[in-house]
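Narrative summary of target 7.
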Amino acid sequence: MTWPLAFLGFLAVTAGWVGIPWLSHGFASFAYHGEPYHPHASWLLMGISTVVAVGGIYLAYLMYYKKSISADKLAEKFKPLYNLSLNKWYFDEIYHVIILNPILKFGSLIWKFDANIIDGTVNGIAWLTMLWSDIKMWIDKWIVDGAVNGSGWIVRKIGNGLRFIQNGSVQFYVLFTITTVVLFGLWKFEFTFISDNWPTMTIIFIIGVTVLAILTKMITNKENGDQESKQEN
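Modeled conformation, tokenized:
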């Protein structure tokens, strides 16, 4: 670390001499094409800066090499200047307050906007889409399919209830037709007995038709059995 500091110190001492007025415009002759503009030299400013630099070097010599001046006492005597120099003129603090903290706060604000507004909008649309899909699935399952399946179930139950009437016997069909015509005729001509006892007569008719269907089915099965026996013989 010593040699880099020594090299930087050498440049600090000698680099400024390149631009002195009496060295044929110094470094300016390399930086410009043609004749550059050269302001008049400020001898007062150069003198003050030289005195300050030499004074600082001499003060450091007395403090750290000769030890004739106590650095601690000098720091205590000029404490505000010492603290200002120790904290690097508070450049880091000023940088954090003026530049870094506003940038961080602005970045946090942008992140919240992205997370809550943009992502919230996208996620909200996705949630609404899923909700609408669930509603449509529920309607399709319980209303549409329910209506279709319910209709099929009702038709199947009615068919099962009326299956016994379709027994294949012509005699039963003829009897059922005649009975229906007779009852319709009685209702049409409004017989007093039938009109006053219509529910009872309806029940009797249903029971009679059912019994007749069962008997007809038994007779038909017996006849079919007899025919099969004759064919086997």
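The chain has a mean pLDDT of 77.
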